[in-house]
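User: what does the whole thing look like in 3D?
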Amino acid sequence: KNEVEQSPQNLTAQEGEFITINCSYSVGISALHWLQQHPGGGIVSLFMLSSGKKKHGRLIATINIQEKHSSLHITASHPRDSAVYICAVGSTGNQFYFGTGTSLTVIP
Amino acid sequence: DTAVSQTPKYLVTQMGNDKSIKCEQNLGHDTMYWYKQDSKKFLKIMFSYNNKELIINETVPNRFSPKSPDKAHLNLHINSLELGDSAVYFCASSQVGNNEQFFGPGTRLTVL
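Assistant: Here's the predicted 3D structure for the full assembly of 220 residues, as structure tokens:
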């Protein structure tokens, strides 16, 4: 069992829909990261959070430390949001664990 | 441009060879990382390194070794390449106290 589990693995949405990607983890963490990998392969860090909620444009990330769970929300989704979204955690033991990613396709 | 850069972008080589991938960051960060992304797109950390500490993922074969000539560079040396080493390798950097990571564009290694 992976230390980080994401769901769903694949997601197809219509443009404009509200999207949620979930991440659960089993280790003690120092921080949780949401990454975006575009079809071209480049990886961009979207959020790093250790508590509460962060918002950047149409993207919102939340984390519940007690439940060991984080969600990434995309409001008013757009085809350019199509990418793989990866949840990763930096553990208190100085290790770094990745989820298997959620492949999002937004259809115009 | 401020960024994390890697060279080469593509590397094709034969089994048994020794190769290196270079990584440079001009962000002033003090921690650098190497990640491997396999054919199933699963990312795994290989190393994290700052001036004080090298943390190695214990699953990484000792054919892989990071070399840091200075704070801005962390090169990855791979000896006796095997078919299973074929993957995309990403370098990243961050600042101590702020683990937000900045990724390089990746190096696609193909071992024939």
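In plain terms: Chain A touches chain B at residues 30-31, 33, 35, 37, 41-45, 48, 84, 86, 88, 90, 94-98, 100-101 (CB under 8 Å). Chain A is about 0% helix and 60% strand.
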